């Protein structure tokens, strides 16, 4: 069940985080070298890797939060 929930959270994060946010971060902070198609491939790969990392970390943290809320001691 936990694996399925992680996959759902990860997949929804990939689809709902706008590419424009990540693209503006890459343009502002990561230098892209190359000409034409090579530079665009590098740019797109940076966006995919950053988005995947953000979604994986976010899904993991949400899973930990849900686990903590479910198993917290009653006061």
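-> sequence recovered:
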């Amino acid at each position: 069940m936990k694996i399925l929930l992680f996959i759902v959270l990860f997949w929804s994060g990939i689809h709902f985080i706008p590419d424009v946010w990540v693209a503006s971060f890459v343009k502002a902070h990561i230098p892209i070298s190359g000409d034409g198609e090579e530079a665009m491939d590098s740019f797109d790969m940076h966006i995919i890797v950053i988005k995947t990392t953000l979604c994986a970390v976010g899904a993991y943290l949400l899973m930990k939060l849900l686990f903590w809320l479910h198993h917290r001691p009653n006061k």
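The CA atoms of residues 62 and 68 lie 10 Å apart.
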